[in-house]
Amino acid sequence: MNKTVMATPNIKKKPSSLRYFQEGVAPVDIGSWRLNVQGIVDRPLELSLDDLLSMPQVYSHRRSMCVCLWSIKRHWEGVLLKDVLELANVDVLDDSLYLKQRSIGTDKGVYDSTIHLASAVRRNAILAHSVDGSSLPLENGFPLRLHDFGLYLYKCVKALASLEVTRENEIGYWEEYAGYDVDGTVLPKRYYAVDLHRKFYFAGKGEVMDEDIC
């Protein structure tokens, strides 16, 4: 892929989200890091970054939405969440299942978030390892971040350590800390598109598409 076309306009104008990175940088030894897939699975997994890179890769030029009302459209690369969970023999369209994500964590604790699994799969959620043609920087969740583009970013855990398939829709870090909604679906509101350098009103619910911005 020609990475010269993978620049995001106005990226330097994006609000910093380092303050939301568990109030510190997660310690990552990429050689020993593994993504653990556990819970209601027939086959628990421990996947290295090389394991993920050996799977079919996807490219997504899609818009992320922050509950703080800014948004940005960037070039994401990774693997489909669906593909990883199917390796563990999970019925990814079972509407009774949820997915609890946990971060690597710091001395201040572990960041967690739970999402509805089948909804995330239907929205083609990805496990992203690269953005704009390069590995995720620390701010974006090195080495891996889940992205469900129909949910606000607080529902998408940075520096992933584990995915647990469960039947419980648990209160996560930001729901408890800041009172955010446990559902996390992007709602109709006025937002600011950093990449377009302008405000827009989103009248729908879920992922924001180009045609939604007028």
What can you see in these coordinates?
- It contains four helices and twelve strands, in the order E-E-H-E-E-H-E-E-H-E-E-E-E-H-E-E.
- The protein is mainly beta.
- It has one domain: Oxidoreductase, molybdopterin-binding domain (Sulfite Oxidase, Chain A, domain 2).
- The strands form two sheets. Strands 3, 4, 7, 8, 9, 11 and 12 form a seven-stranded mixed sheet that branches. Strands 2-1-10-5-6 form a five-stranded mixed sheet.
- About 2% of the residues have low confidence.
Q: How would you spell out the order of helices and strands?
A: EEHEEHEEHEEEEHEE
> Which descriptor suits the 3D outline?
globular
CATH topology: Sulfite Oxidase, Chain A, domain 2
Please tell me how large the radius of gyration is. Answer: 16 Å
Q: Strands, helices and their partners?
A:
Layout: E1 35-39, E2 45-47, H1 49-53, E3 58-65, E4 70-80, H2 81-87, E5 98-103, E6 112-116, H3 117-122, E7 126-131, E8 134-135, E9 145-147, E10 160-166, H4 173-178, E11 189-193, E12 198-202
Parallel strand pairs: 1-10, 4-11
Antiparallel strand pairs: 1-2, 3-4, 4-7, 5-6, 5-10, 7-8, 7-9, 11-12
